[in-house]
């Protein structure tokens, strides 16, 4: 049993120190943080001054250094998601960022502005939904990984034993990590999605759980983080685990998703779909092999399902992926290319059965993890489906939900919940829960990466494609276009700051935030807006003659359209690009 983190905490504040008091039964520990020296020590309750200002908190997210000095980030609100094998799972819903410094008088005006921007970045990440934690259960590992551990591992603190890929506050906890005596105050926090449901089929009650764990390695936003890095970490990598708990038996089915694991980019340039660029200079095989070596070690066999288009701008990526798999020649990898859009065009989503039939035998070979009520492992999952599309969001989620249902069908039959010959799709009440949960999972993953809810969720929720769903996809696509071009630079900077990819140095002579925007970034868009507005005004307020009105409309219309094409031609000059960490530019 892992050493639990403290659940009930109080924060006492004085001008000199922060005191975090453990209020669990029998606890006397107090974490003390010196606001001047930043030293972290362990004290006892009698050391807390009576004059301190006190408030309840629900966890320490960590500390971070900004221009004004250090800040303490604490969880101030939480909601209960459910119980997981008698362990309570929480979602963190509100945070507070507290300065060690009592005054900002030591800062210049520029430093004050920079510090304000960095705080806005932190708060932006904290306001993205999807931070989960437990003080008694290790959420970062799958059931199968947890079953295959040593007694020493099980005695470790939650922070020590956590899978670092999924600890989103790992950088913020680095000071507490260095001091084992304070680990019970350190709370590993997962980013992604968790839902839990108590369900009934045939009068038999079971718990059904869905967990998506987003990797903090190569994390970022849609168009600024694609492909892999030199360590083999893939962009938008998510591990999704579906769990069933019935009469003491536990079953689990794990899938992964991640960007196409070669060196490629797709930087925004105001075009609706920027052209993907595959690096001509990078050693693709080195990064590719690093990626799959680690995947095989962690998960076993890899069945790769590539859902991108096999024509047009996506075709070179599909060809490159197929070539890399063939060149590696690993018996642990199978590659399946399925052109989702081609196969399902004209709303023929029933044709997804072609893919499911194609991989059915492979899925049976991979199996799933199952442990009986006595704690004995009955079956192990021998590998995973690694699915991807371009974003690893919409198409990917649809396929994952279908594969997960097929596995769940087998698990519930084996556990005796479903009778022989019964189909999961025929259980209307459970199907509604299942489809909505997978659609919610799609939305959560999409908002965290692309900035909007997922596309194609009408199929996930209802089992069919609808015209209303198409309209909603159009709306979400429009919002994505705006965010990807005009606010994703800030979003990417926020993630890089939060995860420690960029560290603030107040002694830097030139802050990256002070780099002036190209004059075109503001000038031409303003001209276009003015010209377009004048065109509309001319239409509404006609001149003395129709010829005069037409002349005005033509003048301002040409001005607005011309400006638009100038912007489009030099699109990269007008997008909101990251400023803290230079993102790869693929030639």
From TrEMBL:
The keyword Membrane applies. GO terms for biological process: exocytic insertion of neurotransmitter receptor to postsynaptic membrane; phosphatidylinositol biosynthetic process; phosphatidylinositol dephosphorylation; vesicle-mediated transport in synapse. Keywords: Membrane, Transmembrane, Transmembrane helix. GO terms for cellular component: AMPA glutamate receptor complex; endoplasmic reticulum membrane; endoplasmic reticulum-plasma membrane contact site; glutamatergic synapse; Golgi membrane. GO terms for molecular function: phosphatidylinositol-3-phosphate phosphatase activity; phosphatidylinositol-4-phosphate phosphatase activity. The chain crosses the membrane at residues 521-543, 549-569. Residues 122-451 form the SAC domain. It catalyses: a 1,2-diacyl-sn-glycero-3-phospho-(1D-myo-inositol 4-phosphate) + H2O = a 1,2-diacyl-sn-glycero-3-phospho-(1D-myo-inositol) + phosphate; a 1,2-diacyl-sn-glycero-3-phospho-(1D-myo-inositol-3-phosphate) + H2O = a 1,2-diacyl-sn-glycero-3-phospho-(1D-myo-inositol) + phosphate. Its EC number is 3.1.3.64. Pfam families: Syja_N. It is an enzyme of class 3 (hydrolase). It comes from the Eukaryota. This is Phosphatidylinositol-3-phosphatase SAC1. The lineage of its organism: Eukaryota, Metazoa, Chordata, Craniata, Vertebrata.
